[in-house]
Amino acid sequence: MITDFSKSKTILNTFLRELRDVTIQDDSMRFRRNLERIGEIIAYEISKTLEYESLEINTPLAKSKANLPTEQPVIATILRAGLPLHNGVLNYFDKAENTFISAYRKHGDQNNFEVEIEYLASPNIDGKTLILCDPMLATGSSMVLAFKAILEKGTPKKIHVVSVVASKTGIDFCLKNMPSEVDYWIGAIDKTLDSKSYIVPGLGDAGDLAYGIKE
Fold first, then answer.
1. pLDDT at position 115, please?
2. The pLDDT of residue 108
């Protein structure tokens, strides 16, 4: 399943517009908060897919019942740009376990690069629901490599991929190289990658806009 929120009527599009808008996005605190808000909205949508059970609650006046999830997911994030998005998802799944992955583009020249994984901190994910977050899904290489690295920690029962902006190329690459049962939750899917594999129109470098320019 692929959900493209830009094609539906949702407040998420307000936050996405601010992330893209060059007259707004240079406010780094607002940029981070908008990533977080989008994470919260997508977490709410993902919550509808989980398994639930009815539990009895003792209120001050009487007994009541509520449908509550029977599990908490593992939230996995590709550093560093993924942190605000991760926090948004974690705000709604506040008892979730967490995985952090460091991936970077190792450039051979200006237009050619390989993606490498440097760091992985994760609990066991065997039989659990995995939510893999990365705000920009450009070529798809980082997402696929991160997923393969996480499999060292077990085999999840369900996988959700969360991105703010993806390219069609990146989505197609993930569809070919990840399990067919993966659900994709994307703020918007853009058609084009430029010669440097940046998404167009995209929104620029999410990590730099959130945390400052890196050398």
1. 58
2. 52
Per residue in 56-73, pLDDT tens?
999 999 999 999 999 999
Could you tell me which of 117, 113, 143, 139 has the C-alpha nearest to residue 131?
143
- Residue 191: Cβ-neighbour burial (10 angstroms; 0-12, 13-18, 19+): exposed
SS (H, E, C) 9-74: CCCHHHHHHHHHCCCCCCCHHHHHHHHHHHHHHHHHHHHCCCCEEEEEEECCCCEEEEEEECCCCE
Output b/e per residue, 12-42; b: 16+ Cβ within 10 A.
Answer: bbebbebbbeeeebeeeeebbbbbbbbbbbb
Q: What is the pLDDT of residues 143-169, one digit of tens each?
A: 998 898 899 899 999 999 999 999 999
Token couple for 16: 């996405």
Q: What is d(CA 27, CA 63) in angstroms, rounded to the nearest whole number?
A: 48
**To 5 degrees, how large is the angle CA 33–CA 188–CA 40?**
35
Strands 136-137 and 112-121: unpaired
Domain 2-51+67-211, second-level architecture: 3-Layer(aba) Sandwich (3.40)
Q: Which regions of the chain are under pLDDT 50? A: 107
Beta strand 129-133 pairing with 158-167: parallel
Question: Has this prediction a pTM greater than 0.85?
Answer: yes
